Predict the 3D structure of the following.
Amino acid sequence: MHVWPVGGLVRDLLLRRETHDWDLVVAGNALELARAVADDLGGAFYPLDQERETGRVVLRRKGQALDLDFAVLRAPDLEADLRLRDFTINAMAVGPDGQVIDPTGGQADLAARLVRATSQAAFDADPLRMLRAVRLKAELGLRLEAKTAAWIIERAATLGRASPERMRDEFVRIMAAPLPADHVHMLDELDLLAQLLPEMPPLKEQRQSPPHRFDVWWHTLLVVEAADGLLRMLAGERPALSYVDASERVWVDAVERLGRFAPALAAHMAAPVTGGIERRVLFLLAALLHDIAKPLTCSEDEDGRLHFYGHEPEGAVVARERLIALRFSRAATERVATVIGAHLRPGHLARSAEGLSRRAAYRFFRATGDAGVDVALLSLADHISLLGPGPLPESWPRRLGVTEALLSHYFEQAEEVVAPPPLVGGHDLMDELGLTPGPGLGRLLEAVREAQAAGEVHTRQEALALARALLGKEAL
């Protein structure tokens, strides 16, 4: 029985990249070998594809998972098997003497920083490889070969033959890679974005009135880049900006005012939701879809000014339907929908004459939960997209100030403002005020807790007094 390391493992070794996924080709019974390796090393075995004799062994060492994928040789010999693979940089193997077996020129393409398909038939065999081409470019910082791009464009309409789950996984990795706006743009140029997100093409035809400077499509690319840029700037990086043309002062101000939240934001965005997708990716996905319903809600005044009343809740509905179709988890879907549905709220708070009160902050986070952090940052990115290279408008310090205040309430004053420990419970109000269970009791408890968050009551006695006063006024 012969076994060869192949594919991404060889590529990453040549690139000197750390890898936790090993691809192995077996001239023999691959499933039987995988089971034996799992038993011998104390790992877990999973049959990935019984028909194609592909199995996975998962080993855990020092808290880190290592996946070993065993696949049966699919051709009469190894070189023929390699030629059936997707891209030249994935069509290499290591021989028994350590020599690289490279029948399609993968080493030369790696040196040239190029993603090149082994043949146009590679995409006919598995249309998902079209998304993988963009993902490899994004993750490895490579270029897409022109002929390969042409082959993808010719076949883009066949992407739907791939399962929604596989499309979702490739798309998530594209959004997680550096320069997400650039790669969303590339997906569009390759005609793949319309297959993945059919709601996106109408954004190109949707004009907007000032203060917007671009149609909804270009505005969306700016917002995605600004959202990613905010996270990277706060993490101490200096991302390349292809679309956002705001002055340097914007980024200096943002880091100066929000920099103290950087560690907490990094931990917040790195946390996975159900399904294993990090919040950061869902945040960028919400940025991509935040105006998805503008073409559906456009209206025009007699003077020609365009409005998009209700595009946030309608956008949440559209995004929810699309993410469900792509088999995102319920938690991931609802998080993105929440962010989209609330993305205008910080702007409304910034225009309030009273500024951001504790009561307003409490209501904001009551409606959005921990996704309120994402809403605050998306709203700021949305505003940055409106700013050109000229002088900053008066709205900028107000918008930045509201973002800072919301993050401060969430990360620094959570027990006082966002989720204060209740001073009284339902049994307290029933015992003290003679109430019975029901919706009125719940509303009374919420009114008392809101007053507590606003700093108007501080003790159990004050909470009971307020409840008694509200009940006496029949306010509820």
